[in-house]
Design a protein that fits this description.
Length: about 90
């Protein structure tokens, strides 16, 4: 679930909108919001500073966003390479 929460967080930051992130992720806006809050609770830090209907990443949120890009890219590469190796073992 943590990886999914990170993906939602990235979508929110990338789009600048919870609604657009929800559309991009094919889930409801309230689900995106709940998952971001759950991620913040898991980390014990605020990632987004909310101002009425707008938000901005906190310094911790900016750091987390930048590092999460690398993390998810590495995760995708890990999965692809694992599948490639498994297929070569069975070829």
């Amino acid at each position: 679930m943590l990886l999914r929460q990170i993906q939602y967080f990235q979508a929110v930051v990338n789009t600048g909108s919870f609604s657009e992130a929800a559309e991009h992720c094919h889930i409801s806006q309230s689900a995106v919001s709940q998952q971001i809050k759950a991620l913040e609770q898991e980390l014990g830090v605020e990632l987004l500073s909310r101002h009425n209907r707008t938000f901005s990443p906190t310094p911790a949120g900016t750091y987390f966003y930048r590092k999460s890009i690398v993390l998810l890219r590495d995760y995708d590469a890990l999965c692809r390479e694992t599948i490639r190796l498994a297929r070569n073992d069975h070829a």
